[in-house]
Structures are given as structure tokens and as C-alpha cells.
Amino acid sequence: MRPATFDLEVLRSFVAGVDLGSYGRAADRLGRSTSAVSAQLKKLEEQAGVPLLRKAGRGLALTDAGETMLAYARRLLELNDQASRAVRGAQLQGKVRLGMQEDFGEMLLPQVLGRFARTHPRVKIEARVARNADLLDRIAVGQLDIALAWDHGARLPHARRLAELAMCWIGPADPAPALDADGVLPLAAFEAPCLFRSGATEALDRAGIAWSPAFTSPSLAGLWAAVSAGLGLAVRTPLGLPATVRAMAPGEQGLPGLPTIVLSLYRGSAQLDPVPAALEEILRQCVGDSLAALKAAPGGQAAGRRAAALAGVREP
Q1: ∠ at Cα 135 (109, 226), nearest 5°?
Q2: What's the whole-model pTM score?
Q3: DSSP string across 157-181
Q4: How far is CA 215 from CA 127, 176, 218, 225, 255, in A?
Q5: What is 168-258's CATH number?
Q6: Whole-angstrom distance, CA of residue 6 vs CA of residue 1
Q7: Which of 93, 169, 178, 264 sees the fewest Cβ atoms within 10 Å?
Q8: For the segment 3-15, what is each residue's pLDDT rounded down to a tens digit?
């Protein structure tokens, strides 16, 4: 039997529907009718020979085969788009200003810069790795073109939600008791205000668990050093963790559950110029790859269940 030859435009509609959470919104994004996108999805399932979507309440969700197809579709589209950029990318020139939250500085920034430099060698990137508030302030006053940051309710007009991730307790790589000898949880956190610090202290207070600020740092590197040394627990997401720490399982050692947090892509303007638009495309691809890798990792189905918001879709 000859293998199926998948239509890249059909795959693009499939991925867009997953990323946007609705195939109706995907149709708007791609400039097609909802019925045309639905027909493309039917064609894709016929080519695959297995169902890719299943009913989930009032909407749709990916089947196991659909999740596999999504991973391959992203790779196929990325190769196609890389080829397109490689042919035309040398024509782009100028400068782009990128901001990135500290959680992604070591894990994501090298990927983004590497891919972009290979396809757009004549573009200069000014990158800033900083805390959330600083990035959003700079987006608001036009000092950054795009920024990857946590959504903390700031009503900036040009934000695009990428994913919803679960906060989790972060402990040293070698398991150790969470509470000290007095039954108090030592907490390693950023200086206030901090979304993760607030999520941790509110959850502990609701659970009636005493806590103390064992280590306060202005940088993420400082937090990782403190946690790996056993000075206290931190709260972040499972993305971008160094090997010296680990995401603790939900309910481990009686620790309370934590809220989720939204990761968003912020633009300095509604319509980006070609250079920032090219960087934004690569940034979105790298985030999608990181989320897919998180879900595929051992324990990822649990740790990354909410992180895989990209894998849940609604009917158009």
C-alpha cells in the first residue's frame, strides 16, 4: 500500500484549529469558510485512515492518533516554512526587539535565535530576558516589538494567548522533606509582586500550612540555586527546569494544589512589520515544540495536561 501524501494546506488548517482552540477562528485566520476547513479535516481523516478528533463535551479533542498527527504536522509545516524562509529570508534586513520571560531564557531563547539567524542572516536581534512586569511595561511604551510573558490580567491590546500551564511545586532533584522540623515550608521565591509567589502563599494559607520566606531572589538562577541546595521549595511551571531541580507530583508530601497560569505572546502593535512577524512565527513554533516535548516526556501526561492546551479544540 502506498503511503498517504498529506496536503500541507490541510495540515496547516488542522494545526491552526488546534492552536486557536476553534476551527471557526482558524477559518478566519486562514481566510477560508468554516465549511471549507471542516471539509479539509474530513479529508485529513480519510487520508490518515483513523479518527483524529473525538467528541469532548460540547467540543472536540484530539484522539491519540490526532496527537501523533499534530506532532508530525508541526514538523512538516516547519520544514516547509523553513524552506520558504531560506529561499526568501536573505532578503529581510533590519532590526527586531524581542523580550522573553526568565523561565524561557535558557530553554527557548537559543532555539529561537538559532532558527531565526539561519533563515534571516541580515536581521539584527536585540533580546531582553527579564521579569514579567518589565517586559509588559516595555511593550506598552513601544520599546519591544514582541514579548513572551505570563498573563497577569494586564489589558494590553495586542496579546495572543498561547497556552495554559499548571503551576507546580519545584524541589531538588534528590527528593527531600518539604517541611522543616517545625512543620513549616521554606519558600524560595522572587521578590513581590510575583504571580508564582502569590500562587504559592495563597495555596499554603488555604491549606493551613505554615510557610516562611527562606530565600528571596531577583533572578531565576538564584531560585534554582536555592532549591537545588535544599534551602526551600519554589513554584514555577514544568517548562524549562534545569537538571538540578524537579517538578513535584500533584499532592506529593501533602502539598496543596496550585492554580494555572496563561502564557501569552505580546505585540507592540496590531500589525507587525515583516521582520518582527518572521520572528513571531519562529517563536510560536518553538513554544509549540516545547509544549509537545513536555507532554511526551515521562510523566508528561500528568505534568503537562493543562500545558497541552494546544491539544484541546472546540467545534467551529
Answers
A1: 65
A2: 0.65
A3: TTEEEEEEEE-EEEEESS---SS-T
A4: 28, 17, 10, 10, 19
A5: 3.40.190.10
A6: 15
A7: 93
A8: 788 889 889 888 8
**8-88 to CATH, choices 3.30.465.10, 3.90.420.10, 1.10.10.10, 3.90.25.10:** 1.10.10.10
| Sequential DSSP letters for 194-213 | -HHHHHHHHHHHHHT--EEE
Topology adopted by domain 94-163+262-291: D-Maltodextrin-Binding Protein; domain 2 (3.40.190)
Per-residue pLDDT tens over the stretch 26-65? 787 778 888 888 888 888 988 888 988 887 776 678 889 9
DSSP 47-85: HHTS--EEEETTEEEE-HHHHHHHHHHHHHHHHHHHHHH
Give 187 or 151, the one with higher predicted confidence: 187
Grid coordinates 523561565 are at which residue? 103
DSSP 286: H
Q: Are 127 and 98 in contact (CB under 8 A)?
A: yes
Q: 295 or 252: which carries more pLDDT confidence?
A: 252
CA separation for the pair 279, 10 (Å, rounded): 24
Q: How far apart are CA 70 and CA 63, in angstroms?
A: 10
